[in-house]
Amino acid sequence: MTSLETIVSLAKRKGFVFPGSDIYGGLAGTWDYGPLGVLLKENIKREWWKSMRKPHIFPLDSAIISSAKVWQSSGHTDHFTDPLVECKKCKRRFRTDHIEDTKCPECGGALGESRQFNMMFKTHAGAIEDESAVAYLRPETAQGIFINFKNVVDAFHPKLAFGIAQIGKAFRNEITPRNFVFRSREFEQMELEYFCDPKDADQYFGEIRAMRMQWFLNLGIKKENLRFRDYAGDELAHYSKATTDIEYRFGLSQDGFSELEGVANRTDFDLKNHFPEYHWTGDDFIKSDAGFVPNVIEPSVGVDRAFLAFMIDAYDEDELAGDKRVVLRLHPRLAPITVAVFPLVSNKEHITEKAKEVFDVLSREFMVRWDDIGNIGKRYRRQDEIGTPWCVTIDYQTLEDGTVTVRDRDTAKQERVAISEVAALFREKLI
Ligand code: GAP
């Protein structure tokens, strides 16, 4: 099992993720994504959007800063809390449910009474810092979807069932952010709210659960590292009738599995709260006593948590021709760099020129990296470690017959391919 330390160290060394505010001593629960992290995250998000490309799913990008009224109506002001105890001596705070003793785990001081702590980040919109200007950074993207439900209905007149999908940042003042990007204070969510007739809710719940599990499997996560876990009644959030987690074997808990994504049946809770007088009547959402309030099935996953699962699952160490190597076996569609281009030698003008031509052609379609430093073996290792699925080498033979060497990350096999066919080869492999 790959340890979290191994991933954290690779992530920093290779430019995937750096600790937030690092040069000033850090800020707990925040992380900065470096160049390769950005590319991997973008690819995860693109794959998610691709899975949402359906005629009855509408994309949305709602504001992060939102009115206090949104969170009063949604129940977050009252319920989005964690039980917390404070040490009377060192003033550190801990989640009550993480404490096994009556003493502070840091300094041994006495702990105070447990109280509820709201996890939303509060701010003020505008120049006046009074109660009327209170606003919040959203703790989930979902509410942005609910408050725009009527806008989408009025603009597109969709029939039930239909979905509204959103990717965006969410903020939670976690008392104990931990385990790298698994639990942080600023993170990104990919959420779909799927609105349906209440009588169809159980059916869609089952279908969406299965669809989301398949998404991870299609992107290469090993089956044995994923499982479903249904919530018991007393675990359910205030808005949910049924919830199933898709769990991944992150190796952070006793049996290794922790939540990767949640799929919840949120019933009519959110629409009822935001639009108390509205009902679905005929094919419209209008002020009326007749009709029903659509129910909502919500698959919700953290981009950062998915990022971590893909990194852990892809990490491997093996031996090639007697040489140890680290290899990230990321799905080619997720790999930050799709192709690396190597001129065999950097001091031969014709080879460099030809390699630049190949680089330019491939860059039109793929994320390509240029590397002309060190021997070819070292260049392969560097790309293996960041998960690049293919390396293309331009050598003396290229100048004679217009072919290049294409080397595969996983098998280390090499084949000669005509320059005119190389883009088509990758395009086909990426389907
Ligand atoms: N709208 C429903 C909702 O927000 P959640 O279970 O609180 O439900 C959904 O969050 C997903 O967001 C989680 O499954 C996880 O992937 C991600 N997530 C939640 N809190 C997180 C945190 N502090 N850091 C990173 N990811 C987080």
Overall pLDDT confidence:
96
Specify the CATH class of the largest domain.
Alpha Beta
Terminal-residue CA separation: 30 Å
If helices are DSSP runs of H or I spanning 4 or more residues, what is the number of helices? 13
Approximate helicity band: 25-40%
Bulk shape: globular
CATH A-level architecture of the largest domain: 2-Layer Sandwich
Write down the domain tally: 2
Counting helices, strands and paired strands, the structural category is alpha+beta
Global Rg: 25 Å
Mind summarizing the main beta sheet?
7 strands, mixed
What proportion of the residues form beta strands (DSSP E)? 25-35%
Structural notes for this entry:
It is a single chain. The chain is α+β, with helices and mostly antiparallel strands. It has two domains: 4-64 and 140-312, Bira Bifunctional Protein, Domain 2 (BirA Bifunctional Protein, domain 2, 2-Layer Sandwich); 337-429, Rossmann fold (3-Layer(aba) Sandwich), CATH 3.40.50.800. Helices cover 30% and strands 30% of the residues. It has 13 helices and 24 strands. The protein has helices at 4-13, 35-51, 68-74, 76-79, 142-147, 149-156, 201-218, 269-274, 303-314, 349-363, 376-386, 396-401, 419-429; strands at 17-19, 31-33, 57-60, 65-67, 81-86, 93-95, 115-118, 121-124, 134-137, 162-171, 186-196, 226-230, 242-248, 258-267, 278-281, 284-287, 295-302, 315-320, 323-328, 339-343, 368-370, 390-394, 403-408, 414-418. A seven-stranded mixed β-sheet has the order 3-10-11-17-14-13-12. Helix 2 (35-51) crosses helix 9 (303-314). It is globular and about 80 Å long. The two termini are 30 Å apart. The structure holds glycyl-adenosine-5'-phosphate (GAP). Glycyl-adenosine-5'-phosphate (GAP) binds next to strand 11, strand 14, strand 17 and helix 9.
